[in-house]
Amino acid sequence: MNSQAVHPEGRGPIDVQLTPDEALALTGVEFKGNPKIKTEAQRKIRNAFEKTFDFNSEAR
Fold it and tell me: According to the lineage, what is the superkingdom (predicted)?
Protein backbone atom coordinates (compact mmCIF):
# COMPACT_ATOMS: atom_id res chain seq x y z
CA MET A 1 0.00 0.00 0.00
CA ASN A 2 1.26 3.45 -0.89
CA SER A 3 0.35 6.41 1.27
CA GLN A 4 0.69 10.05 0.45
CA ALA A 5 0.75 12.84 3.02
CA VAL A 6 -1.11 16.00 2.13
CA HIS A 7 -0.47 19.11 4.20
CA PRO A 8 -2.46 22.25 3.40
CA GLU A 9 0.51 24.58 3.93
CA GLY A 10 3.09 22.41 2.22
CA ARG A 11 5.95 21.06 4.30
CA GLY A 12 5.43 23.11 7.43
CA PRO A 13 6.76 22.24 10.87
CA ILE A 14 5.14 19.88 13.35
CA ASP A 15 5.02 21.08 16.95
CA VAL A 16 5.61 18.43 19.61
CA GLN A 17 6.30 19.01 23.29
CA LEU A 18 8.81 16.50 24.66
CA THR A 19 10.43 16.27 28.05
CA PRO A 20 14.23 16.51 28.08
CA ASP A 21 14.39 12.76 28.79
CA GLU A 22 12.12 11.99 25.83
CA ALA A 23 14.25 14.11 23.50
CA LEU A 24 17.40 12.37 24.71
CA ALA A 25 15.79 8.95 24.28
CA LEU A 26 15.11 9.76 20.62
CA THR A 27 18.81 10.49 20.10
CA GLY A 28 19.73 7.01 21.29
CA VAL A 29 20.28 7.53 25.02
CA GLU A 30 18.93 4.51 26.89
CA PHE A 31 17.10 4.83 30.18
CA LYS A 32 17.44 1.47 31.88
CA GLY A 33 15.12 2.46 34.73
CA ASN A 34 12.29 3.46 32.37
CA PRO A 35 12.48 2.02 28.84
CA LYS A 36 9.01 3.44 28.05
CA ILE A 37 10.41 6.99 27.71
CA LYS A 38 11.36 6.46 24.06
CA THR A 39 8.03 4.81 23.30
CA GLU A 40 6.15 7.75 24.82
CA ALA A 41 8.16 10.25 22.77
CA GLN A 42 7.49 8.29 19.57
CA ARG A 43 3.77 8.18 20.41
CA LYS A 44 3.69 11.97 20.88
CA ILE A 45 5.39 12.52 17.53
CA ARG A 46 3.08 10.07 15.74
CA ASN A 47 -0.02 11.74 17.24
CA ALA A 48 1.18 15.23 16.28
CA PHE A 49 1.99 14.02 12.77
CA GLU A 50 -1.45 12.47 12.33
CA LYS A 51 -3.14 15.69 13.52
CA THR A 52 -1.06 17.82 11.13
CA PHE A 53 -1.17 15.73 7.96
CA ASP A 54 -4.01 14.11 6.06
CA PHE A 55 -3.20 10.64 4.73
CA ASN A 56 -4.73 9.31 1.53
CA SER A 57 -4.02 5.62 0.94
CA GLU A 58 -4.01 4.05 -2.48
CA ALA A 59 -4.55 0.35 -3.08
CA ARG A 60 -1.89 -1.42 -5.11
Answer: Bacteria
